[in-house]
Amino acid sequence: MTLMTPSPLDQQDDDEMLVPHSDFAPVEGPQPMEVAPSETANPVDAQSVDDTPSARFTWTIENFTRLNTKKLYSEIFYVGGYKWRVLIFPKGNNVEHLSMYLDVADSATLPYGWCRYAQFSLSVINQVQTKYTVRKDTQHQFNARESDWGFTSFMPLVELYDPSRGYLVNDTILVEADVAVRKVVDYWSHDSKKETGYVGLKNQGATCYMNSLLQTLYHIPYFRKAVYHMPTTENDMPSGSIPLALQSLFYKLQHSDTSVATKELTKSFGWDTYDSFMQHDVQELNRVLCEKLEDKMKGTVVEGTIQQLFEGHHMNYIECINVDYKSTRKESFYDLQLDVKGCRDVYASFDKYVEVERLEGDNKYHAEQHGLQDARKGVLFIDFPPVLQLQLKRFEYDFMRDTMVKINDRYEFPLQLDLDRENRKYLSPEADRSVRNLYTLHSVLVHSGGVHGGHYYAYIRPTLSDQWFKFDDERVTKEDIKRALEEQYGGEEEVTFFDAYILV
Questions:
Q1: 146, 149, 153, 156: CA torsion to nearest 10
Q2: CA-CA distance, 60 to 43, in Å (whole number)?
Q3: Which of 228, 226, 238, 420 has its CA nearest to residue 305?
């Protein structure tokens, strides 16, 4: 979810995206090499953490076309005192491309909460003309959820397996990995409050989606203030009262020095332990939470706050072309679901949202007293809310495959979103033209993984300054704008992408 709000908000009080090869679990721990007997590898010598933390590893894979394994690991090599290996899918990881990843070789034996950061490139060497070598660069912070990272669609198999292209010579290919390891603070010794001024939320098992949403809502000043003003009584128990549980949680986020537990809040939702370990839909949770708060605010000093913050209105219309007849219907929304497929950025999605559909031929519109008529059908916005929540339609049902699929298309979003552009083409005639619909990016909720699972975290800039922060469950870190924005654009299989974002 992306949060954007009108500018300014009162602040009181890569072309190809990289991905883990699996949605659910890291690659298994150290295990025997799954290689043909004639395959060889040249591991980099082990080195201590104090040595230069960068090295090149070259992997010579012989009898390549005769490999009959789905995935193949290189030998272990050391960079920065850490164990690494390269993982390839010779026939592609469910794609018609060579799939290749850098893997933390000892991930299964590392302590809980470990992480390490690496800048690296993966290459398939062209043995005839080196200038045609295929090389892709990236960087990633490896952890237990994402212990391997790289490219599902590294290069087309038809090119790799064609001997005339120069990649496969004498049934041998050469793979290179250039890895530079940057020291990162140990997970447990990292003091989020000291380093950033903010604290994280503890994960109950699969509640990262909820933690990301709660951090986003907490950092909207108006929302936080409204929660604090919700009336509660001394007889209330946090585990039985959503308002009190949320007040308690927000207070702890504001004043605690360590990460905050969410069990009281989930109990107030009526969730048992099993529910906590089920990954719910962020959009659904946001709507349910807002509905419950909206109901609890009725008859209080903060009644109507949820509507004032998040509710906008649009007008559905059908207008006949040949007769004077028009039908309109006003509807409210708390968030907007935008198409990704076929859209390069947020503006293209809005263009598609208001696109006019022609009702003609067998699809003519039946107008009262006029019978079947050619008509235009569409949607225009009457007003936008102070806090605009955009949800991306990254998942859709594929009728041919009878399954849900993920849309991995590259999709860009701006720091500022001008919804008055091109002579206010998104607005209906009855919209208030004195209102300036200019929004500033506040937060980005990111989903890493696939259709059936993954991990959520949030990039937020609480005061709308240039400094972004990554809220990843218990851990809060400072991040630059490139990681918060550009790396969420997508464009690769099993990619990390922004699921929604909020503008203010």
A1: -140
A2: 11
A3: 226
Spatial separation of the C-alpha atoms in residues 396 and 123, rounded to whole Å: 33
- Closest among 176, 103, 174 to 144, alpha carbons compared: 103
Q: What residue spans of 239-321 are helical by DSSP H?
A: 242-255, 263-269, 273-276, 282-297, 305-310
Residue 6 has pLDDT above 60, yes or no: no
> Residues 140, 314, 447, 455: which is the catalytic one?
455
Distances (CA, A) of 179 to 56, 82, 100: 6, 11, 14
φ, ψ at 54 (rounded to 5°): -150, 150
* Residue 17, pLDDT score: 34
Q: What DSSP designation does 422 have?
A: H
- Find the length of the chain: 504
SS3 state at 416: strand
Active site residue 290: no
Of 11 and 491, the one with more pLDDT: 491
CB 457 within 8 A of CB 471: yes
Catalytic residue among 115, 208, 290, 343: 208
Cα–Cα distance measured from residue 254 to residue 263, given in angstroms and rounded to the nearest whole number: 18
Residue 15 has pLDDT above 50, yes or no: no
pLDDT of residue 21 exceeding 70: no
